[in-house]
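Inverse folding, one chain.
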């Protein structure tokens, strides 16, 4: 094997690693920006997958919390949580 193909492979590998690093930084920055800010009225507290289509969400709206079932035929409000 000559030196030229080896350098090409090493260059391609470094390029892919650089792209992965840039994507990681962009993802971390976007997560940082999506954190709940003080004063927000609507915040997703928890989300659990029941199956590939349906999910249960715990959403805080102001000082109250509501449980939602999404996916399937239609979305349903299961109910509001009682104040502790």
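Residues assigned per position:
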């Amino acid at each position: 094997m000559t030196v030229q193909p080896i350098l090409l492979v090493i260059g391609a590998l470094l390029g892919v690693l650089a792209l992965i690093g840039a994507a990681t930084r962009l993802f971390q920055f976007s997560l940082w920006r999506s954190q709940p800010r003080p004063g927000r009225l609507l915040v997703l507290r928890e989300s659990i997958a029941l199956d590939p289509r349906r999910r249960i969400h715990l959403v805080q709206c102001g000082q109250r919390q509501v449980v939602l079932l999404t996916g399937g035929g239609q979305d349903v409000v299961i109910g509001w949580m009682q104040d502790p």
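Helices lie at 3-33. The mean pLDDT is 84.
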